[in-house]
Amino acid sequence: MMAVLALTATTMAFAQGKQQLQDDFYTYVNHQWLDSTEIPAAYGSWGSFHEVYFANQDRIKGIFKELTESNTSYEKGSTEQMVTDFYASCMDTVRLENLGLNPLKAYLDKVDQINTKEDYLALTAQLYTKGIQAPIGTYTVLDAKNSSVYALYLSQSGLSLGNRAYYLEDNPQYQEFRDKYLELMTDIFKMLQLHQGKEREAAQKIFEMETRMAQIHRSPVQLRDSERNYNKKTMAELNQLTFNVDWPKYFKDLGLKKEVDYVIVNQPEFLAMFDRMLDDFSIADWKTYMQWKVIRGTTPMLNNAIRDRSFAFYQTTLNGVEEEFPRWQLAQNSTDINLGQPLGKLFVEKYFPKRNKDKMIGLIDNLKQAFHQRINRYTWMTEETKIQARHKLDKMGVKIGYPDEWLDYTAVDIKADDYFGNVIRLREHDYLRQLNRLGDEVDPNAWGMTPPTVNAYFSAYRNEIVFPAGILNPPFFDYEADDATNYGSAGVIIGHEITHGFDDNGSLYDADGNLKSWWTPEDRERFEARAKKIEEQYDAYVVLDSIHVNGKLTLGENIGDLGGLAIAFEAMKINQAEKGAQVINGLTDEQRFFLAYAKMWRGKYRDKSLENLVKTDTHSPSFYRANGALSNFEEFIKAFDIPKGSKMRREEIITIW
Question: pTM for this structure?
Fold first, then answer.
């Protein structure tokens, strides 16, 4: 009963700090951890998710140790051979240093051969398949309004700093970032002996081009508008949107082998602007821009000098991270990114027993039952909409742990002495596999995360919730823990993902995953009025003196937190009715549930990482995820007898799901 014992310290403190409990439950539960925990130098933040991730890293390290020390010659194409040789190629830093920047030469030579806009677009497409960023993102996923088939999508891209705010926001911090970014490009061009004597001018030209793109990029909040981001175009209509791009040729250069009937353009205004930019900037400018994209896209596979210079900007300057991961951890992360399913197969065989999956299935069944009961009781929703809500819940798919069928990588040549080549070949293999699903029926076995991942997700297009094996470890899920503790952690995570199907964005999709309203107009209006109150609640939260949480950007996650809490608590009560209530270490089921919930969200941030999170992330900072949801939950108020006027008891309790 390790999880119960871990709560003993909290039990002893329960009689103390009553005022803190009423004003800041998150700190009340986690104060010892917050006082004693330092953020490791290689991280911008640290919390329970990182602790589980790090524990999984140790498990994976053990897998590699067994594989590499067994003195076994693995058959070419076997899971063990691919994983072991890929890992070895990344760990061979002596070879990477000896190669220096030579792996880049073939790609930079191709850039040098560009003479026309047509040359630029052709090479852009070819390099995109190898993981080199292009101004336009091109990918195949389920059609949001016909989720039975895969469709081709085009979207805004092209920014090396990622978010438009870095280019456009007028404040001293972001101006410093812009200055440092120019220094980074200048230094790396010098290292590569490119634009000799004019390195700074080349950097400024790239920044000018990216700033032009940023000006037309939609903001993170606007990108959450599913209807606005769905613009279906025939090929004729796509050709009217641009003048410089031969789209059939561009798609062929990408490696698409199928006819394109239509394309879904996420941001048509960006495509039109990019088309104008092709005329506004010279071929020399576009060559310079592409040089930088090639460098950025291959930096992780190069020698220490260029990697260290890039790290100093992207991690230290932007996020306050002091040092890079040790090489073995970088190698493991790269294996997970590039060969995640083969590695995941070895991971689950060793660390995810069937009993864990079976217990998760039981938790999910109870949570779905609880949500059914809650839907039936809602007074703000008419029966017409309730029928559709229950239908969507009933059809919601569930994936736990790992795929039923594993992806096949035997066609990819993985070599122990070619890290650069391994990554490029795997990128191309994965991209072409997903691109050429165009027009195919849904693959029911597709996963969006690798099995060791410490995360979970809801897919609106598939109407399914997915829980990789990596997250199903303490403090999120503990097979040995008491039921109330698991419902307060794993149960809430499950409920959170279920609720994503009914948050401000997920609720726009029907039971089959189509972007199609299933609400009566009156019910939708009532839903949005409640969501608006949650948005306003989180807008009022302040971090770092004057920076507020963005309630609109984080709305879906905040609705998910509140809904997950409510659904999991009701599921715990169903379980309690079947098995009886327990008092452990003086704590009721209800109290242990909420203690586990607050413990799950413990975390610390470096200031720069926190600012970046608030500006760009759809998730609120962890302390507001804990206190924000709990202060809206009447059962929490009852469990700890929170008096009126306390910060943990809002004057107006906001509920949706």
Answer: 0.90
